[in-house]
């Protein structure tokens, strides 16, 4: 009988660990999204610096200066969208970590058994929001490229 009890406890522990892994997979996904977003932020900053330096070489009302200001406005909007996406991704990671912890806590305090699921759903919604913000940034980036091409032709 003692062996049966130990086997049941082991199976229960494995089930708890399996439940804790699901939010961990979401955390890995968020990490990949963040890495991509950080890379995009770096490119926005680098290109913005070049545009700012270039704008300083033109007179305030020249055609080129007006175009550069418009392009910088787009880059500013891109930076806001990326900042928003990163904020949502980092917050989602926090929710997924909390969900993972509450899986273990719910074993001790079954009153909060619903909380890991709720935290995971909120985390998934935050990832959705971050993805939408990233999509907006991509649309801004491609729009800026199309505008630059049109201006060059």
Overview of the structural elements:
The chain has three helices and no strands. It has 153 residues and is mainly α. It has one domain (20-152). Helix 1 packs parallel to helix 3. 22% of the residues are buried. The model is unreliable at 1-5 (pLDDT under 50).
Low-confidence stretches: 1-5
Described by the principal axes of the CA atoms, the overall outline is rod-shaped
Output mean pLDDT: 87
Beta-strand fraction estimate: under 5%
SSE topology string: HHH
SS summary, helix count: 3
Care to count the β-strands?
0
Cα separation of the termini: 83 Å
Class inferred from helices and paired strands:
mainly alpha
| Largest β sheet strand count, sense and barrel closure | none
Integer tally of domains: 1
* Helix content, binned percent: over 70%
Q: Measured on Cα atoms, how large is the radius of gyration?
A: 24 Å
């Amino acid at each position: 009988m003692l062996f049966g009890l130990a086997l049941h406890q082991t199976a229960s522990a494995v089930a708890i660990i399996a439940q804790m892994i699901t939010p961990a997979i979401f955390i890995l996904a968020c990490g990949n999204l963040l890495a991509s977003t950080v890379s995009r932020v770096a490119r926005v900053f680098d290109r913005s610096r070049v545009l700012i330096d270039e704008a300083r070489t033109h007179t305030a009302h020249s055609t080129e200066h007006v175009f550069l200001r418009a392009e910088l406005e787009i880059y500013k909007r891109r930076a806001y969208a990326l900042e928003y996406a990163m904020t949502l991704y980092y917050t989602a990671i926090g929710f997924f970590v909390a969900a993972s912890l509450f899986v273990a806590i719910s074993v001790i305090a079954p009153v909060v058994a619903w909380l890991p699921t709720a935290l995971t759903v909120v985390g998934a919604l935050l990832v959705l929001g971050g993805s939408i913000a990233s999509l907006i940034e991509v649309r801004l980036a491609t729009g800026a490229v199309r505008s630059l091409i049109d201006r060059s032709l």
